[in-house]
Amino acid sequence: MLYGKMTSKIALVTGSNQGIGFGIVRELCKRNVGVVYLTSRNIQRGKEAVAKLEKDGFYPKYHQLDVSDEESVKIFAEYVKNKYGGLDILINNAGILDSDFYKVSYKEAKRIIDTNVHGIILMQKHFFPILRNNGRVINVSSDWGHITNIKNPYWVQRLTNEDIKLEDVYEFLNWFLDSVKNNALKVEDFFENSVLAYRVSKVAVSALTRVQQNEVGKGISINSLNPGFVRTNMTKGGGDMSVIEAGVTPAYLALDIDQSVKGKYFWFDKTEVDWADSTLDVVDTFDAFEKALQEVNK
What we know:
eight-stranded mixed beta sheet
């Protein structure tokens, strides 16, 4: 019977032609979700990814999607609405990392925030209206998206306010971008000053999750996730989890967890971590990341 229930679900994973997104699509197909969309900016890469999954006996559908391009998001939302009447599972996975880990430029910071944060906001604008009752949204964050990455007391307090609004997230991002632009970043405002635009963008994603949950209605649950340190192109092959392993917890949040769990932040091992507790020691240092890269490149 469970299979029958599952088959009616429509799921979509952004940025899923490789890496964690690819692992999530694979796991949702493995779990017999009715229709699973693999999406990518680049059509050829997306179709190659689908072909790879088909070889393993999994059959996702494909649609082009660039989350930083509103027209692309809008076209796909209309397509899903017309074809299926709605969406049950949205996994916002598309994301990019700083190309220079040690220093941040305004142009690069803006590009990262446009994809990692504004992309999710564009998806919200066009896909939330077609999410079915009791739908589920998972925003892929990072341990670098935990509030402990920010040490500026004003922003810690404002972002962890239970009544947080979208304008709080926007103003936090603008504060960061203005600081980069004016060369006014302060070392003491951050846990570490490496991969800074990525950290700020993922803190914003975790905060945005709470904003979305406060506003959404229709019984929809929205949670964020640190998917773990996964061996992908983004991590240059460093990590302690495979892409296939990384698909398990997002699928668990999409299919298994009780619908009453809302606005929370999860770890890759399915445990819930208090996102707003700024006293926790949960963030991997950049040193650990660098060491893993050195191991790969030996």
